[in-house]
Amino acid sequence: MIEAAALAPIGLIAGEGRLPVLVAEGLVAAGRRVVAVSLSGCADGSLAKICEEVVPVSMLRPGGWARALRRRGAAEAIMVGRVGKGVQYDVRGILGHLPDWRAARVWLLRTRHDRRSQALLGHLADELAAAGITLIDSTTPVADHLARAGWMTRSRPAAGVLRDAELAWSVLERMNELEVGQAIAVRGRDVLAVEAAEGTDAMIRRAGELARGKGWTLCKGAGPAKDPRFDVPTVGLETIANLRAAGAVCLVLDAGGVILVDRKAVLAAADEAGIAVCGLGPGVGVLRALPEAT
């Protein structure tokens, strides 16, 4: 039984972006066979070179995802990649994707009074489990790309920026408890912006406008209560480019809880942009005492 399970392929439910590719590469490097379903065909084309098969499926038909994976021998899956949050607020868009009864049950019954990401995705995971597919930790195949505790760049911020970062981190911890966004921007100990449904990139642009492109700090993370099976916060090259354009000088991440998509490239880009990047854990209050990340 154990040998059969080890030989069974693992499913990959893939949205947009580079992260599904990194997950697939990590699984293959660990000796796993990978079969993928591409949500509305939006997954990165290079997945086909890594996975045994990539099957396009409708974004809002989770029953179809499960059937496609089961037919290919998978009983477990990892779900990663971008899916626009705006879809959940656009009724015409939802109907355009022809949701199946499982999606309709999640939307109309189980989350009608609570449509936060954690609630939606938790119920979606339950529906997939009922259809024979168990979602598993999405961070395990990309452990080398997780934020690490300590300073991850050569760049270091000034003392005033460190004080901003300490304030932002304490507020972010409270936001995580309330499940309000995953990022916050601070300058001069004043909160510029808090992430909402628009996502981090839009929030960065807003914070840059308010700070007039000068010397502000972004903290990002979802806290220890975050379910690692889905919607784990990420930072990529586009994030660093947006931070640079908006005038940010420091990026503080939840150590072990944020994925750096292509970690080495992201940190190199941050150093080039003069953006100091560090990882923190619960209860850390003084960034000046942080060591370099291992």
Automatic annotation (TrEMBL):
Q: Name one Pfam family in it.
A: LpxI_N
Which residues does the UniProt record annotate as the domain LpxI C-terminal? Answer: 149-277
| Name of the protein in question | DUF1009 domain-containing protein
Q: Which Gene3D superfamilies match?
A: 3.40.140.80, 3.40.50.20
- Originating organism: Phycisphaera mikurensis (strain NBRC 102666 / KCTC 22515 / FYK2301M01)
All copies of the LpxI N-terminal domain together span 10-143
